[in-house]
Amino acid sequence: MNHTATAAAAPLNPQAIAATGWRGLVADWSSDRQAFHVSWGKAMMWIFLLSDTFVFSCFLTGYMTVRASTTVPWPNPSEVFALHVGGADIPLLLIAIMTFVLISSSGTMAMAVNFAYRRDRVNAATLMLVTATCGELFVGMQAFEWSKLILEEGVRPWGNPMGAAQFGSAFFMITGFHGLHVSAGVVFLFTVAFKLMRGDYDKAGNYQIVEIAGLYWHFVDLVWVFIFALFYLW
User: Fold this and answer.
1) What is the rounded CA–CA span in Å between residue 84 and residue 92?
2) Which residues make beta-bridge pairs with 89?
3) Collapsing DSSP states into helix, strand and coil, what is residue 118?
4) Which residues are bridge partners to 90 per DSSP?
5) How far is it, in rounded angstroms, from Cα 216 to Cα 49?
6) Beta carbons of 183 and 217 less than 8 angstroms apart
7) How far is the CA of 99 from the CAs of 81, 102, 115, 116, in angstroms?
8) Which has the closest alpha carbon to 217: 129, 144, 140?
9) Which residue has the higher pLDDT, 96 or 33?
10) What are phi and psi of 85, to 5 degrees?
11) pLDDT band for position 6 (50/70/90)?
12) What is the DSSP string of 124-187?
């Protein structure tokens, strides 16, 4: 009797089939990860940033649609966001400083990633702390901008005395949502920098979390470039 034919005809153990299926599934996912040379942490961050891109795109598209379709004059950003210095109103001065601080922080974050891959945790952590401090300064200046508009100019989410009622809702929604991202990024950077200084990633032998934090921070900076161009310069 042919033993090969007998073995082929014999019923397979369901538990063995299930175990093989799970092992095959894990092997397939692992092979995909190895084929593209992307870690799970970095892949998940890219997926999150992609979804966040859709959210910000919807907000900015809605803002542009409202501004283009309203029949009431839109407030002039050069006048609304002017800063009174030395007896004169300087247009967009505070916004220019905020933009400079945030864009500069991308440079310090890139340097932190570079030092992290050199296993120089002291310089990497220091530059991450500088980056987080820049983020704090940005949020602080944004809070000052909000308080000025609310307390001095009378701007509200449901209206304002300077023109189209939609201005307040669009401004507070878009800049507030971005400010929330910056605040979360500051907490993220401080946490990673603290663990970096403590040597947690030396034990694991993997500094990739610094690059993942950098991806998030560069995304936040890039979004601000679009907000700055569409909201403050248009």
Assistant:
1) 10
2) 84
3) coil
4) 83
5) 7
6) no
7) 14, 5, 25, 26
8) 129
9) 96
10) -135, 125
11) very low
12) HHHHHHHHHHHHHHHHHHHHHHHHIIIIIS--BTTB-TTS-THHHHHHHHHHHHHHHHHHHHHH
